[in-house]
Amino acid sequence: MGGKTAASAAGRKSASGSGSTQEHKSPRSGFGLRHELRAGSARRGPRRFGAALGVALSLAATFARAGAPLSDDVAAKLFDEGLAAFDAGEPKRAAEVWEKLQREGDPEKAWRVLYNLGLAYQAAGDRPRAVERFDEFARRVGEQPGSLPIEFEARRQDAVDRAASLRPHLGVLRIAASPSGERIVVRIGSAPARDAGFSVYVEPGTYEVVMGEGRRAIEERLVVHEGELLTHVARQRPADPSPPPPPFEPPIPTGVLVGGGVLAAVSVALPVAMLFRARGLREEASAIPSFDPTYPERVDAFDDARTAYLACWSVPATLAAATLSMLVVDVVAASRGPSRRAPKVTLALGPGQGALEVAIP
Predict the structure, then answer these.
(1) How far is CA 44 from each of CA 31, 38, 47, 51, rounded to the nearest angstrom?
(2) Cβ contacts of residue 34 below 8 Å, gap of 6+?
(3) Average pLDDT in the 130-149 region?
(4) For a surface tag, which of 12, 111, 323, 338 has the fewest beta carbons within 10 Å of its beta carbon?
(5) Which pLDDT does position 19 carry in this prediction?
């Protein structure tokens, strides 16, 4: 900046919020964040108030974005690029460059360019952003620990005055969060989407506001008047109801359970028949004297029939136990719901013995 003037920018004026005119300071003379990067540089020499402040508050720090730091020379070129665009009557381009510098710079120092951004947005006619940048700059000055050079207070007061002259002619759109606490994404016009629960300065007019995403999105038209604070609670369509659970299918079909019960009941007839046969043989043995030659044979026949009778009960007992176990499996499966794995049932029947295995995961 060394020794240059900013006549092109300083001479430009624009309508303020109150209808009076207010000079747009050049970022060079207002708050030039110029780097003093090289000893003996041709940039040294007499400087205006803002340039001297810029040297004192130089952004000689590492700028980083996506892991690729910006060198001091690159940072200085970015500032000069924005300054050249501002002096050439392209404040929008200047704002784009300085936003990059502010976004990618050291957070402890890059905030100083916020004042420059406020001037650029004001010159470009973007009053909402100008107020936001001026307010943020004034806030950041107040947050700095310790004492600051008097120039900081001068720039802060100028930012406060400029924001105060613009603010009455803007509206404030406040998007309140949903009372349910549900996260709702909101988009105002072409601005980037943000989570509900914010306030933003806007020019008086009508705005298309989209709340929610996808099938749940709701679009509304909100009218904001000059000097008005419009509060709108974010909302979205209810979520689609959950599909009904699939019908319950028991792991053991009902027919199998009924068949097992019937078979168990029918199998009781076998031991009953064996019981009558054993009683008949016992009565025959009791009817003859013990010295009768056929008596031992009759007793052996009765013993065999009694043993067979007792053994026959294993069949209905095994069938009944298997049926009851399968019924328990169905009840347990129903209580666990269709989303859980069905129990595993293994039934093995053999001559004179039975085995039942039930595994419930």
Answers:
(1) 17, 9, 8, 11
(2) 1, 43, 51, 54, 55, 58, 76, 79
(3) 91
(4) 338
(5) 37
The candidate with the shortest Cα–Cα distance to 2, out of 22, 95, 40, is: 40
Which pLDDT does position 253 carry in this prediction?
Answer: 75
Do the Cβ atoms of 93 and 125 come closer than 8 Å? no
Strand order in the sheet with 218-224: 194-195, 185-188, 205-211, 218-224
d(CA 294, CA 291): 8
Mean pLDDT check: name the lowest of 21-35, 73-87, 136-150.
Answer: 21-35
Per-residue confidence at 35, pLDDT binned at 50, 70, 90? very low
Q: Which of 280, 269, 328 is nearest to 304 (CA)?
A: 280
The residue type at 359: A
Reported as a pLDDT band with limits 50, 70 and 90, residue 292 is confident
Cα distances from 323 to residues 252, 270, 318, 333, in angstroms, run 10, 19, 9, 15
- Percent of the chain surpassing pLDDT 90: 36
DSSP string, 104-159: HS-TTTGGGGHHHHHHHHHHHT-HHHHHHHHHHHHHHHHHSSS---HHHHHHHHHH
Place of tokens 């003093």: 36
- Residue 207 falls in which region: left (phi positive, over 0), alpha (psi -120 to 50) or beta: beta
Alpha-carbon torsion angle 47, 48, 53, 56, nearest 10: 10
**CA distance to 6, 78, 84, per residue, from 134 (Å):** 21, 21, 21
Q: Is the pLDDT of residue 238 over 50?
A: yes
**Do the Cβ atoms of 9 and 51 come closer than 8 Å?**
no
